[in-house]
Amino acid sequence: MSETEKFPPIPVRDGGLVAWAIETLGVILLMGPLLVVVLGRSNDAGLFFDMFRGQLLTALFVLLSGYWFTTGVLSALSRSHRIWMWLYPGAATVLWAVHMQLYFFSSLGRHTHSSLTLLAIGASLVLFCTLVGTWSLWKWR
């Protein structure tokens, strides 16, 4: 039995998985510069390190909070139909807000001004990236 018969390739039928991966990567990569613009730079490091720190913390949050898994499942379910795919950006934004709420509540026990700012920045960025991804996927199909 050959290697391809044991593990057949996963077909990328409609590009939904690719769009979801690019959207998630876009959120991670754009969060660092956006945090520096909105919250300002730290005094202990340079601009590049501040942006990298924001990107790294966002990547850890996406992976460890379960946001990555829940949006992947939601993307696979909602993007199977051309009309339902337009529900995905709003649902992904709500998932971001829920995961941020759970994270801040479990770590701080309350909301601070900076946690609400992070929630708003992240939700706006997720909405933007998912709208661009959904529009691209819609045009491609």
List the helices and strands and how they pair.
Layout: H1 3-6, H2 16-39, H3 47-64, H4 67-78, H5 88-107, H6 113-140
Helix pairs in contact: 2-3, 2-4, 2-6, 4-5, 5-6
Give short descriptive properties of this protein.
141 residues, single chain
Q: Can you offer a commentary on this structure?
A:
The protein is mostly helical and 141 residues long. It has one domain. Helix content is 75%, strand content 0%. It contains six helices and no strands. It is globular, with a radius of gyration of 17 Å. The N and C termini lie far apart (36 Å).
Counting helices, strands and paired strands, the structural category is mainly alpha
Contiguous runs where pLDDT drops below 50 for at least 5 residues? none
Helix amount: over 70%
What is the general shape? globular
Look at the structure and give the mean pLDDT.
83
> What is the tally of helical segments?
6
SSE ordering:
HHHHHH
The portion of residues forming beta strands comes to under 5%
Short recap of the structure:
With 141 residues, the protein is mainly α. Helices cover 75% and strands 0% of the residues.
